[in-house]
Amino acid sequence: MKLATILAGALLVCVMACPLAHAAADPVTLTTYLHDPAWTKRFDTMFGKTPKPGWLNSATQSEAVPVTMGGKPYTVLLACKQHDCANHQLVVLFDATTIYGLRFETTDNSPKETLTWLNIGGGPESIDGKTILYAAITGSLFNHPAMFAFPASK
């Protein structure tokens, strides 16, 4: 009887712990970061006078991808309009203090792309940052993440 009680208790602990273990393994996405009010403020500020896309609230999102720019670690997040990812995307590149973005818009099978660069200045983000952001839009970053480790300039 005592062994049965111990086994039942152990089973209960396993059942209760399994959802927690699964929750810890959830992918890190844009929504994950948007739960942090300080990060959300930086994200909102990145847009400046450019309106945030309305579809962001129900966007399809990729997992975070680590990259290196100027020898420093950054994170890349991609979100796209649900059921229309090929035509409406937003990608962000950020570290602990800076955040850059690219809003991509097009129409099915059109050769015309509208690129709206967000918070891009004259630093390393103006070349390597744009390369990383556009590579996320095209899928190249997700297919070849090791290729996006830009060392510090000499």
Automatic annotation (TrEMBL):
Transmembrane segments: none annotated. Keywords: Signal. InterPro entries: Inhibitor_vert_lysozyme_sf. The keyword Kinase does not apply. Residues 1-23 form the signal peptide. It comes from the Bacteria. This is C-lysozyme inhibitor. It comes from Novacetimonas hansenii (Komagataeibacter hansenii). The lineage of its organism: Bacteria, Pseudomonadati, Pseudomonadota, Alphaproteobacteria, Acetobacterales.
